[in-house]
């Protein structure tokens, strides 16, 4: 029986939740939400996630058996970890250490990597090159890789002796490191950690792309309408503003 709907697009943040659902063995289905077409701004989706981004989940068997919506990837990981009793340390010190890394990821590593990808990869394909922005975000992205490298140089996982939601949160961004201007060969401990996670069954799941893009074709650039939908600036009305995650 399908219990959890995952509102999904091929983004690192949505990837976290897909992997988490696989890791905990939750019954789920993919609800394709094409952010390049503005699906995230439709009223029915905003009722699930008022922030108009992916991912989000709708758990039809939430607390007390009632449906619950959860948005923001960090909140979703914590919700699923507590619901299924997996990937969150039981030891209280380790638990809060784990949550600190999740907060670090959702407030720092993810947003900075996303901006790095925008100015390093996406904007140049649209004929936009802003050296100050590109260099600023490249520096900040590398600073976050330095933090990871230091943390992982003495241990296999970010917290304790086992894989947790802390590792799961950070991994989908390291697997697209080239897009934000980083070669993982420069960070051997991060690369070894990323490679270990990439071998997990949850990391190998590839949902069929509802846009009909052949696997391996990769990013080919956005047309002007898609660019405006994803990266448009200056709109203030909910349902018209940009969303890239």
Characterization of this structure:
This protein is of the alpha+beta class and 245 residues long. It contains eight helices and four strands. A four-stranded mixed beta sheet has the order 2-1-3-4, covered by helices on one side. Helix 6 (165-174) packs across helix 7. The radius of gyration is 18 Å and the shape is globular. The two termini are 30 Å apart.
What are the salient characteristics of this protein?
disordered C terminus; 245 residues; 4 strands; globular; alpha+beta
Can you describe this structure in just a few lines?
By secondary structure, the protein is an alpha+beta fold. It has helices at 12-24, 43-46, 73-84, 92-125, 131-152, 165-174, 188-198, 224-231, and strands spanning 4-8, 28-32, 56-59, 68-71.
Overall spatial form = globular
Spans of 5+ residues with little confidence (pLDDT < 50)?
213-219, 233-245
Query: What structural class is derived from the secondary structure elements?
Result: alpha+beta
Compressed to H and E, one letter per element, the order equals EHEHEEHHHHHH
Q: Average pLDDT value? A: 89
Bin the strand percentage: 5-15%
What is the count of DSSP helices, taking H or I runs of 4+ residues? 8
By DSSP, the count of extended strands is: 4
Largest sheet strand order: 2-1-3-4
Largest sheet: 4 strands, mixed
Radius of gyration: 18 Å
Our measurement of the CA-to-CA distance between the termini, rounded to an integer number of angstroms, reads: 30 Å
**Helicity, as a percent range:** 40-55%
